[in-house]
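Sequence decides. Consider this:

===
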Amino acid sequence: MAASVRLLAGLGIGVLAWLLPVSFKSLGLPQLEAAGRGTPGLAALGERFVHTEKLGPAQIILTTAREIGSPEAGAIAESLGGLAEAQPALVRWGGWAPALEPLFGLGLDAERGGGAPLDEAGHLRSTPVFELLAPESARGALRASLSGTRSLGVAAILATREVAQAGRFVPALQPGGQPLDAVILLTALLYQGEQFSPELRRELRDLASAANQQDALGHLEEVYIDLLSLAQRLNWVQLAELVSRSSTSTTLGEYAHLARIAPDELPIIYTAALFTDSADRVARYLIRYGKAGAADLRLALALGGGAVQQLVTHQVPIKHSSPAPVFSAAAVFSLRYPGLTLALKYLGYLAAAFLLFRGVERALLSSVLGPGADVWGRSAVQSGVLAIFAAGLLILATEPYLLAASEPFSEYRFRLSIPLLANVAALAESPETLPSPSMNSSTLISIAIFALLQVGIYFICLRKIGEIRAQPLAPLLKLRLVENEDNLFDSGLYIGMMGTATALVLQVLGVIDHNLLAAYASNLFGLVCVALVKIRHVRGFKTRLILEAEAAASAADKGAATEPAPAA
């Protein structure tokens, strides 16, 4: 195969591998676009809740659409406004609530006059469910309604009102115990209306039974605190939809934690849970990736429900930088077979590097070392080693999350905050100073410069070997000339160490961003350059010179032995 054919084939395979829209530990934008194409968007999700007379979730979906600048916000607002004008009494509770209507006279709100309640910005206003349970009259009516329940779970939850030991709450039957009393009644009402998921119902019943037996709330108190946090921010229907998608109390705790530390992101998080019908995976994603995960969710929500589903299912960040153009068929294939596509991509890098090295050796090195030089060697193993090294460097350069920590930094992780020992404000600001796992342009430029320097040194060394080979000298003299150029052959290592020191100094001075990969890449390139020159070329050249010198000496000895002795 000609050198030009190898070069063209290598470049073609390399470009095709680079264009495959798949990455390690991340999802590319083409993949998310393919996943979201043809799936329901925010407008369809909002219409679904409007048709079921659930204004509360539809309000949050509308808020999300406005925040991400979705063109579907107008359609959602129109549908929601029509339902609110037709049923203004539903706005306060967030929708039709059969469990509450006989208790609080929900149907009388429409008779009291006035349209749908609006806030100062003209948006629909609902009432957090905790505000509805705060008055004693409301709690008294709810206790009377639930007192005759036949549910063992509801009875166990109501019995925790008499538990005397609590950690952060004041016991419900003591003065100041109104918040605990309200949240216990709220929990019992959600349980009675089968709003909790089956797994969470079972867990709450067990926790309530254990609390009654021990006369201490224990872990159940944390569940009550989480429900209280959510009830202060969500209306009845919004809270009911969220708890129905939460399989454990841990998920409730994660959502309450997110609502406390990131209240502005609550509409995004809530809408993602509605899209995926799983609050657990959405909460896990946000707790793991923090603000960056919230930004990725915003992007996925704009692309459609399928994109959100893929993102929270794979639990990986979005790789925002992706090559173009990308064929939709390739994106769909990478979604269905991500492991196979990633293997094809890496094998493509390896095959491209192998063909390129073969083409370069045939086209360039033969002109440097001379037409009679053995540029291919006895085996293709050497070119294979070079191809593996080059493919590895290319993978590191194109996979920003390959070397990232297994547990990425997240601003939303649970933290124990001790005011006397820690400055909470300082901790809140620290995430802004942490570097991003993706390599920026200055890092890539630094690595490229270091690599080009070593390539130049490599060809200088090869040219020197070619000059020595071309001289009409004896093999032993050529061998001494090669040994005299050891410093030149080691120059790649010296340049590599100088590049590492220079990069570290520039990072300290702030000229380039902090990234140890840029600094140590110079040293790594120098080691590889010296190894290639001395092991692959110098060692082989010396071996040939030694063999030629020995052959010449043997021929001289044989000639001396066969020469006739002079006459006496």
About this structure: Residues 436 and 458 are 34 Å apart (CA to CA). Confidence is low (pLDDT under 50) at residues 106-116, 372-379, 416-438.
